[in-house]
Amino acid sequence: xxxxxxVSPLAPAGFPDLPAIDxxxxxxxxxxxxxxxxxxxxLAVLDPGTSVAGVFTRSATRAAPVLDCQDKIGGSSDxxxxxxxxxxxxxxFTGHYGQTSVAEVTxxxxxxxxxxxxxxxxxxxxxxxxxxxxxxxxxxxxALKAGLSRHAIExxxxxxxxxxxxxxxxxxQVEIDGKxxxxxxxxxxxxxxxxxxxxxxxxxFTDARVEQTAxxxxxxxxxxxxxxxxxxxxxxxxxxxxxxxxxxxxGVDATDNSAFAxxxxxxxxxxxxxxxxxxxxxxxxxxxxxxxAASDTDAKVHGLAIANSPLVKTAIAGEDPNWGRIVxxxxxxxxxxxxxLLSISFGDILVAEKGWVSPDYREDDAAAYMxxxxxxxxxxxxxxxxxxxxxxxxxxxxxxxxxxxxRS
Length: 408
Description:
The protein is an alpha+beta fold. It folds into 2 domains: 24-278, 4-Layer Sandwich (L-amino peptidase D-ALA esterase/amidase); 285-405, Ubiquitin-like (UB roll). The chain has helices at 64-72, 95-113, 134-138, 141-146, 153-159, 212-225, 258-277, 296-308, 310-317, 324-332, 363-369, 397-404, and strands at 24-29, 41-46, 51-56, 81-89, 120-127, 168-176, 179-188, 201-206, 241-246, 285-293, 343-346, 349-353, 356-357, 374-380, 386-393. The chain has a 6-stranded mixed beta sheet. A 5-stranded mixed beta sheet has the order 3-9-8-7-6, sandwiched between helices. A 4-stranded mixed beta sheet has the order 1-2-4-5, sandwiched between helices. Helix 6 (212-225) packs across helix 7 and helix 8 crosses helix 10. The protein is globular, with a radius of gyration of 22 Å.
């Protein structure tokens, strides 16, 4: 895989200062899974009593680590837990060898850390269809154990990157019953991003105490409003996962707490939008707001039809206010629409209303707006109260260059 050295123009100024989460420690190593000269494996070890919830890709060809994690989610939370992630190789479409690799890695983590195999969760990301050289990972377990630190979450974010141009992190602290609860998360994702949970790797940690079934329900609901509302290229990954871990170290019970739920959703949305901002070759971050649909479901269908359209995305890349392509995407989505009720805006510029170009619309105004990096496309269907917002990026030559060279 060719090295990616140019940071996305949409990247934040730097990695945020994330608080250390009591009850979790991190370590990274350079195992040489595929990359040379960079870390490519991260280990997180969590204290006994940590609740672990997860959501995963719905791909019919999902990878061996995903299947293993799905089998383990919902088990006992009594003992410690561990998460091991490698980049460079997805361990997907590798048959029985893939299952063997997962078994070897999870047993090695268990032996090194004392965590029961049933509480070791693994993820792999990278090239599909090549056997995972798990022996290289196993050989580094003692080094990983020795390097565990409460303050190494940024290192973990860097170790899980593939075609990402910047590490992604987010955090928040919230007051519950007069005590401070911390939430911090990291993510990787740049291409093969389409909402069908999960389409990326995401790990979120909190020192709040939340019972596992409640944590799982909360994660599922908030995923639909965050990670399932983004798309880079309409492709759903075989490998990706979101794990949410509540260590309980703060002693604060956040089960069914609205302030905690709101804070968690903020972290999830921030990470989701950072993934879009690091879309392969992206130069524009696009928010698509759909209102007036027959239902919220229809609104999301329309939003994703616009967000996933290559014609819309290339027009955005070319800074062309070609609103006819928005009309096209709505028409093909399959959700309810009426041509004669449709309104479209680019930012504050009303482009079309009631199925026809606005009499006040000036192409030069829209063309100037399209030169910005952060864009809003608003569509009102005029049919009902349904609404949804999704986020995407443009489609440029850079996307082709990255993916044409992905395995070299």
